[in-house]
Design goal:
There is one protein chain. This protein is 50% helix and 7% strand. The protein has helices at residues 41-50, 61-78, 80-93, 99-109, 114-129, 133-146, 153-165, 168-177, 186-193, 203-214, 223-229, 233-241, 250-260, 275-281, 287-299, 305-317, 322-335, 341-354, 387-401, 427-437, 447-454, 477-487, 523-532, and strands at 25-27, 33-36, 365-370, 405-410, 418-419, 461-466, 492-497, 503-504, 513-517. α15 packs parallel to α17 (322-335).
């Protein structure tokens, strides 16, 4: 019999049980009950940044990819105007991988409604005008293989604009750099689009290039002289270096590369082991390509003298994506026996610069990194980096930006919480520190909030960096969060999801909560701007 003078407390619902009376909960891949974002704006945003191929501890790649694609297709078909607005927003933010954006664009370009197709084609024209030709090849492949549609008039016109309107030097550079992507070659796009060059600027030069590409990257009779007459120096240099043997005089190779301003994709594979080839290419090597090539350059002995100074200068001044800098900071020391300390120092500085943040009026903050076993498997944003490795970088960026931030790692209980002093520490030192703290246990995402309650810390912002696979707790995250909000009503909560799923810790519309997907160029800025606004 219940004593009404001393009523019992409401029973807490374990994370592995559905909440009585709620019909909007779903099971995550670990078996915990959370909320679905399928067929929502958040699902689309998460897919654009993270893609679908992220396989982790609890699920296989194919399962996640198909789930992601089904939800995205349904949402774009039902809400094409909203989807297009989101694409326009992301086009300004430059997510680290473009496959998600291009898949959504392919869906819009083949939508049943003509007005949607026209609006999408107008946006695509602006997007592709200054984008690599590889993006157009990817889009062509996604339209044909991903949606199963044929190329209509609007799409053919879209593909033709590059050949008709781009400056001739850009045409040569792009079509010789990207010789094949996703099974498509520049010649394939030409055959689909039938670009009209008559009356265009540099008409004869464009025709020479188009004939060269349609002829399988070979000049037709008389076209080499025409290319010379039209000043197509890079095309001539590209053609010449394809026939150079691996025994060629390095000085001759250097002359061709410097004259044509060639970059590494222009060079035959068998010449990429020649040190002098890379020395000649360095001044023209794009910043993100340089990040990927650091281990190769080190092994070729280029990190000495003037060549090292050129590398360091390019890394210091180029506007680089923080995620790609993070990949380089992680991969470079792993792939060489004796990494150059000056390169590591510049990568650390480049990451800090690339992830510089405006913290607004945020005071006390808690940055909590999920260090459970599932965070150590799979990869994030289509890279080779695990979720926890990306999470360490995000923790460092947030702690460097927020002077009053506490930083912790956790797994499944209050006893698992460990301080993680990420402020002002090198990324690779943070990785070593994390390895000494990790336990690889289960996941309970109530732990950081419960820790804040136990320590009676009044935080303006709580950020949890996770894969959302919570299941171990005796209480739902939303219930723990609401207890914290009752005590500290100004607090806000952000969940940074590093693997794709269609799940959220909160139902749609929960006040003062935000989902952030992955590590795109402005994700952290978006988070902090939102948190610094008045509730």
């Amino acid at each position: 019999m219940v004593n009404k003078l001393y009523p019992t407390k409401p029973r807490k619902t374990r994370q592995t049980e559905p909440t009585p009376g709620r019909k909007d909960e779903v099971k995550n891949f670990a078996g915990g009950y959370v909320y679905s974002i399928e067929d929502t704006v958040e699902h689309l945003r998460r897919f654009i940044v993270l893609g679908g191929k992220t396989g982790a501890l609890y699920y296989a790649d194919a399962e996640v990819t198909m789930e992601a694609l089904r939800g995205v297709v349904d949402y774009v078909n039902d809400q094409p105007i909203v989807a297009l607005a989101i694409l326009q927003d992301f086009a300004r933010k430059h997510p680290p991988k473009k496959e998600g954006m291009m898949f959504v664009l392919a869906l819009l370009l083949t939508h049943d409604t003509l007005m949607i197709r026209q609006s999408a084609a107008e946006f695509a024209g602006d997007l592709l005008k200054n984008a690599p030709l590889a993006d157009t090849m990817m889009l062509a492949w996604l339209i044909q293989a991903g949606t199963g549609h044929q190329f209509g008039r609007l799409i053919k016109k879209l593909f033709a604009q590059f050949w008709q309107n781009a400056p001739i030097n850009a045409l040569v550079y792009q079509s010789t750099k990207y010789r094949k992507r996703h099974g498509w070659a520049p010649a394939d796009l030409i055959q689909v689009a039938h670009p009209k060059t008559k009356g265009r600027v540099d008409e004869e030069a464009r025709n020479v290039l188009i004939r060269y590409l349609l002829n399988g990257y070979a000049f037709k009779e008389g076209d080499l002289d025409q290319a010379d007459a039209q000043g197509l120096i890079q095309l001539i240099a590209f053609d010449e270096i394809q026939t150079m043997p691996d025994t060629a005089d390095p000085e001759a190779l250097t002359g061709i590369i410097e004259a044509g301003r060639l970059t590494w994709e222009h060079i035959p594979t068998y010449l990429l082991s020649v040190r002098e080839v890379w020395e000649a290419m360095l001044p023209n090597l794009p910043g993100h390509a340089l990040l990927r090539q650091l281990p190769r350059l080190d092994k070729l002995g280029l990190f000495d003298g003037k060549t090292l100074d050129v590398v360091l200068e390019k890394l210091a001044v180029k506007p680089l994506h923080p995620f790609r800098v993070l990949l380089a900071a992680l991969n470079y020391p792993r792939k060489v026996d004796d990494p150059n300390q000056r390169v590591i120092d510049v990568l650390d500085a480049a990451f800090t610069s690339a992830s510089a943040l405006d913290v607004g009026n945020i005071g006390n903050a808690l940055v909590a990194l999920d260090s459970s076993g599932s965070m150590c498997g799979g990869t994030t944003a289509g890279s080779t980096i695990t979720p926890v490795e990306a999470g360490i970088g995000i923790s460092a960026a947030l702690c460097n930006a927020l002077p009053n931030a506490d930083s912790i790692v956790f797994t499944d209980s209050l006893s698992s919480v460990r301080p993680f002093p990420a402020r002002g520490v090198r990324y690779n030192d943070l990785l070593t520190m994390w390895n000494s703290l990790r336990t690889g246990r289960s996941t309970d995402l109530t732990v950081p909030i419960a820790h804040a309650l136990k320590t009676e810390r009044d935080y303006d912002l709580i950020v949890i960096i996770t894969d959302l696979q919570t299941w171990y707790g005796q209480e739902k995250v939303i219930d723990t969060w609401r207890r914290y909000k009752r005590k500290y009503p100004k607090a806000k909560f952000v969940a940074v999801s590093l693997l794709h799923s269609t799940h959220s810790l909160f139902p749609e519309g929960e006040p003062d909560t935000l989902n952030i997907s992955g590590f795109d160029a402005t994700a952290m800025d978006t988070m902090l701007q939102w948190a610094s606004n008045a509730s």
